[in-house]
Amino acid sequence: MHQCHVCRSTNSIKNGTNRCGNAQYHCKNCGTYRVLKPRHVYSEAEKQTVLQACQGRSSLRGVERIFGITRQTIARWIKAHVQTLPDVKDTFLAATADDVLELDETWSFVFKKEYKRWLWTAMCRRTRQIVAFVIGDRSKATCLRLWEALPHEYKTCHSFSDFWAAYREAFPVETHRCVGKETGDTAHMERWNNTLRQRVGRYVRQTLSFSKCDAFHHLITQLFIIQYNLSLSLTI
Ligand SMILES: [Zn+2]
Fold first, then answer.
1. What pLDDT is recorded for position 204?
2. In 3D, which of 127, 169, 126 has the Cα closest to residue 146?
């Protein structure tokens, strides 16, 4: 008789196999669906290897196939991993009086192509670190959220963006300028978008990998930005 891993009840039934071929049960007492005999408990080193694979543009499905670990488990590890990392606001250097911000918005989608999500970012030109990001639609409201997400000390900095009207409405006229790409004033921010697309599968154009939910999309973006900022902090 099998005992539920969660509530210890024996009132459970077989529930087929998961994607990796492990037999599952459904506990009628607490409602849980789990693997009958977990293969083994993964070591910290094994988890780290899998997490690193996830950060190399691989999709969760790809990592699932290679390591034989379900996407749900990997997603759980990623969530737990992000919680051990510092907040984005603690990953970049303090502003100096003459710092300049470059702003841009880049699209990806969640679940289906029609559901576009724009990633709005603010980069400090001196440190190349991302000092604020938000994900949402392309409206003024989301642009305002970017402004609000800026650390107080960066709000007095001069900033540059493209001609998208929302910037003009959300950022103060005294310090913000809309410029064309040819000026090069948003070049670093645009270059970063390419880096993002290069490293994170869900931002690759024409991609088949995409996030199924907003929360996970935000989490993966946050993870990338934290690691990007921290890697720069070490070199500045
Ligand atoms: Zn149970």
1. 63
2. 169
Helices 71-84 and 44-54, interaxial angle, to 10°?
100
Q: How far apart are CA 20 and CA 10, in angstroms?
A: 24
CA 70–ligand 1 middle distance (angstroms): 21
Q: What is the pLDDT of residue 22?
A: 81
pTM over 0.85: no
- Nearest CA to 162 out of 148, 176, 151 is that of 176
Which amino acid, 79? K
CA of 27 to the centre of ligand 1 (A): 5
What are the tens digits of pLDDT across the range 91-136? Answer: 999 999 899 999 999 888 777 777 788 899 999 999 999 999 999 9
* Angstrom distance (rounded) from CA 147 to CA 176: 11
- Residue 49's SS3 state is helix
pLDDT in tens, 31-53: 998 888 876 678 889 899 888 88
Alpha-helical segments (H) within the chain: 44-54, 60-67, 71-84, 140-149, 165-170, 187-199, 214-235
Cα–Cα distance, 175 to 156 (Å, whole number): 7
Q: Who surrounds ion ligand 1 at CB < 5 A? A: 4, 6-7, 9, 27, 29-30, 32
160 bridge partner residues = 102, 177
In angstroms, what is the span from residue 24 Cα to ligand 1's centroid?
A: 13
The pLDDT of residue 209 is 54
Laid out side by side, the sheet with 12-17 consists of: 12-17, 23-27, 33-35
Judge contact between 39 and 61, C-beta under 8 A.
no
